């Protein structure tokens, strides 16, 4: 044994050839934490001291190679002074450089995931052999930062500046074929041939058939482009990066600028440039929000796995109602491997549901993501039916009929008679109380909510709603089913609107009040899209369906009359009464026409503008900041209320629910991180400026207490 540590070992495989094996103790994956970095330095020193060493294979004892840096350490790292962050990053780079400078050829044996620092380790090797089951990449920009272990230095020298800018600025994971095509790896082989192929390459390098000295010289020298070539490459590349990233995400363009500045420098100088840009980005609110969101996502995923532990295998599912939503649920279930029965009361409904599933599958085939045979198999695992045949074998049955409490209760009560006593019934209701719906059932303990978001195939979130009598086993089964469907479930407690819609409707109420006070819905949409929302509130209402939103708002007003009942006739009500339902019938806040691809194209509509004018009761001067504040304060305060009332478990669930459920801007991290970044005290002071607008704008006592104590939602 050359070196033995808690994260890696170094030993001879055969004469002169050593294996540096990453195997982080006590963890299912390898990652670069402080221990791993320290031991890499120590192991490198030990390897350099071996007189008989001829070459090194870098391997992993786990199913992944190295997933990247340990993100849990970032939150503490980012709090350090600049000098300490620079010292830490410089020391890490010294370790990578020392490994790269070993006096023998080195080969990375990439058996699985190699991302971020994991792929930077591969880049420090002379050669890289990749399994067909592996992925590589530098996704740091998705955390609001740029690579910090030499990624922006080595990658352009390995695959060229143009390719490197796209790899780094998009943060995309690279599959084997793409990685090989761009030159990020030297060979791609089947998993069972990986070690032999890597060993063979290393022996050829030792024999001098492959020149590792030349490889190294390229990585440690300036990029081989003249000034004009370099200028053209980076000018074009930066323009593309800026356009794709948008103004709210500084990391992609900053990383591109880092590569541009360092292209004409040697390794030591270039790494200092990378560290300069890394330091600049770690101080941005985007990095703080995105790192925090990553940690929240891990926490939510861990919680879901915990809930699902006792859920068993969901082998057969069923859905009641075969419209667009039912068809979407059927598609997602079947596509992810759980066969599903789809029941409706009419052939037309079944045809619509199958058409929806077939359309989504055909799209995958047309894009080369699925074979026609696979499509046929998936469609074959969806069984349409006008009766309850086979429902006695279903483990989970999801009701997705019209959003009407009496209709839902009737359907659920009837269905309960045709299923096994241990099967779970779940309602896809978006607002109706689960406890109320359960009153129609003989086994309310076997019933809960399972709220999908539209479109089902695209939206990652599922709310699993616990009613007053819902059992833990029921929650476990439905969470397990959501995970099998490839969704991220959060478990919430019952109340009108549950969590996401309960928080969304105060946002819509803020919009109605803005129109009442003289706001232009076109400007409001533009400002909120500039804030980072995927679409403005008027456009969102059109997409959701103004009729759907109006009926849901009635439920919310009944549930929370003190703050969600209007004392005026809002623009949403006027639109509903005029039967302007949005995209579904072609007119709402905007008029919709089909574009060349058959998709609805948003157009301005004079009648909608006149209707908005008629809804005005005042003409208040509204700045962009006023619009953002008046839209966001109600949403944020309602989020806090849901936390206070234990509707959501914790701040991580709360923020992830909004990011995945309504597209809350990821670079802001969610409503609670938005408050944190502003400061709870500053948020309360901002809300108090709009106190005359009513209870939706009044901070909770818990918020005021947090402000007084200098507390935050995330530590």
From TrEMBL:
Q: What class of enzyme is it?
A: lyase
The reactions it catalyses are:
a (3S)-3-hydroxyacyl-CoA + NAD(+) = a 3-oxoacyl-CoA + NADH + H(+)
Q: Where is the 3-hydroxyacyl-CoA dehydrogenase NAD binding domain?
A: 317-495
Q: In which pathway does it act?
A: Lipid metabolism; fatty acid beta-oxidation
Q: What is its EC number?
A: 4.2.1.17
For this UniProt record, the keywords arranged alphabetically read as follows:
Fatty acid metabolism, Isomerase, Lipid degradation, Lipid metabolism, Lyase, Multifunctional enzyme, NAD, Oxidoreductase
Please state which protein family the record places this protein in. Answer: In the N-terminal section; belongs to the enoyl-CoA hydratase/isomerase family. Belongs to the enoyl-CoA hydratase/isomerase family.
Could you tell me what this protein is called?
enoyl-CoA hydratase
Naturally occurring in which organism (per UniProt): Zhongshania arctica
């Amino acid at each position: 044994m050359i070196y033995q540590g808690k994260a890696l070992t170094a030993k001879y495989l055969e004469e002169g050839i050593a294996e540096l094996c990453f195997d982080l103790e006590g963890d299912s994956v390898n990652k670069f934490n402080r221990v791993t970095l320290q031991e890499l330095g120590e192991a490198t020193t030990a390897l350099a001291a071996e007189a008989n060493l001829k070459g090194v294979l870098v391997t992993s004892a786990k199913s992944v190679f190295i997933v990247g840096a340990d993100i849990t350490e970032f939150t503490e790292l980012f709090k350090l002074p600049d000098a300490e962050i620079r010292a830490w990053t410089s020391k890490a780079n010294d370790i990578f450089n020392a490994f790269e400078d070993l006096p023998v050829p080195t080969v990375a044996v990439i058996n699985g995931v190699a991302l971020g620092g994991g792929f930077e380790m591969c880049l420090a090797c002379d050669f890289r052999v990749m399994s067909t089951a592996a992925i590589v990449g530098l996704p740091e920009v998705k955390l609001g930062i740029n690579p910090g272990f030499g990624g922006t230095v080595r990658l352009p020298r390995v695959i060229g500046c143009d390719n490197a800018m796209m790899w780094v600025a998009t943060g995309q994971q690279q599959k084997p074929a793409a990685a090989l095509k761009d030159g990020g790896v030297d060979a791609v082989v089947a998993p069972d041939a990986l070690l032999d192929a890597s060993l063979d390459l290393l022996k050829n390098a030792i024999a001098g058939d492959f020149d590792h000295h030349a490889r190294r010289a390229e990585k440690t020298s300036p990029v081989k482009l003249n000034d004009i070539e370099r200028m053209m490459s980076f000018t074009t590349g930066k323009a593309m990066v800026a356009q794709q990233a948008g103004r709210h995400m500084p990391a992609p363009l900053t990383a591109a600028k880092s590569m541009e500045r360092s292209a004409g420098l040697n390794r030591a100088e270039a790494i200092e440039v990378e560290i300069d840009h890394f330091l600049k980005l770690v101080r941005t609110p985007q990095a703080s929000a995105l790192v925090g969101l990553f940690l929240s996502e891990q926490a939510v995923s861990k919680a879901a796995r915990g809930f699902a532990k006792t859920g068993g295998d969901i082998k057969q599912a069923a859905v009641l109602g075969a419209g667009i939503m039912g068809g979407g649920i059927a598609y997602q279930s079947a596509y992810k491997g759980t066969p599903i029965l789809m029941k409706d009361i009419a052939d037309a409904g079944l045809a619509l549901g199958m058409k929806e599933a077939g359309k989504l599958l055909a799209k995958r085939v047309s894009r080369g993501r699925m074979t026609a045979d696979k499509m046929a198999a998936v469609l074959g695992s969806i069984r349409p039916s006008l009766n309850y045949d086979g429902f006695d074998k279903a483990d989970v049955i999801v009701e997705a009929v019209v959003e009407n409490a009496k209709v839902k209760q009737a359907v659920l009560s009837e269905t309960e008679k045709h299923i096994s006593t241990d099967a779970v019934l779940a309602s896809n209701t978006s607002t109706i109380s689960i406890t109320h719906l359960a009153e129609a059932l003989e086994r309310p303990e076997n019933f809960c909510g399972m709220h999908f978001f539209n479109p089902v195939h695209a939206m990652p979130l599922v709310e699993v709603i616990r009613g007053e009598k819902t059992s833990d086993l029921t929650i476990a089964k439905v969470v397990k089913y959501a995970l099998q469907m490839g969704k991220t479930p959060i478990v919430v407690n019952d109340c009108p609107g549950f969590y996401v819609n309960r928080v969304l409707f105060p946002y819509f109420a803020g919009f109605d009040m803005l129109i009442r006070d003289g706001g232009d819905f076109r400007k409001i949409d533009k400002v909120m899209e500039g804030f980072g929302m995927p679409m403005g509130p008027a456009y969102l209402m059109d997409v959701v369906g103004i009729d759907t939103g109006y009926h849901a708002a009635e439920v919310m007003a009944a549930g929370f009359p003190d703050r969600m009942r209007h004392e005026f006739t809002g623009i949403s009500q006027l639109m509903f009464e005029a039967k302007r339902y949005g995209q579904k019938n072609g007119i709402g806040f905007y008029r919709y026409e089909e574009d060349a691809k058959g998709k609805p194209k948003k157009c301005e509509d004079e009648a909608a503008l006149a209707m908005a004018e008629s809804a005005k009761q005042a003409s208040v001067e509204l700045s962009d900041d006023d619009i953002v504040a008046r839209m966001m304060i109600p949403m944020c305060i309602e989020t806090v209320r849901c936390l206070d009332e234990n509707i959501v478990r914790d701040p991580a669930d709360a923020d992830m629910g909004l990011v995945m459920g309504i597209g809350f801007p990821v670079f802001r991290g969610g409503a609670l991180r938005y408050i944190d970044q502003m400061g709870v005290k500053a948020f309360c002071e901002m809300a108090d400026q709009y106190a005359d607008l009513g209870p939706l704008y009044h901070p909770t006592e818990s918020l005021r207490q947090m402000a007084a104590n200098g507390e935050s939602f995330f530590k």
